[in-house]
Amino acid sequence: xxxxYWINLYNALTIKVVLxxxxxxxxxxxxxxxxxxxxxxxxxxxxxxxxxITLNAIEHEILRPIWKDPRLHYAINCASVGCPNLHNRAFTxxxxxxxxxxxxxxxxxxPRGLKIEDDxxxxxSIFEWFAYDFGNSEDGIIKHIAAxxxxxxSEALLRIGEISGSHYDWSLNE
Length: 174
Hints:
The protein has 174 residues and is mainly α. It is built from seven helices and five strands. The strands form two sheets. Strands 3-4-5 form a three-stranded mixed β-sheet. Helix 1 runs antiparallel to helix 2 and helix 6 packs antiparallel against helix 7. The protein is globular, with a radius of gyration of 16 Å.
């Protein structure tokens, strides 16, 4: 399955680029792809059929436009504390449809993905950055999150009905 190939390639390249530049405090400290770059995402990391490939190309030109599945954001990892966990097994054609919803549930169970205190809802900045993938509206984001969040969090989110803010920790996830 091509989906599994591209997810695994993205994650492997991310790990490789961090290890090649370690120690760093954040993946954003790795400057590839130009002097003004904020991270390695635009650096040519590998060639496929003679074409240079970047992390951004894998994410924004292959994964997101071809599969149009917001759960991909739980599968690809940017080596940051704020990111969903890097799964300890490779994606395969046989396990991808099981892993994607499980990774969504895992992330939304943790305060990095969804935090509800009193009547305040804080979500990962991933939902803001990629709002288009989650329905392109606050309502779409809420419906997506509610579908994967633990029952108590889902019910609280739907009751509150709005997102108060977002957060993301770019510290290296060692």
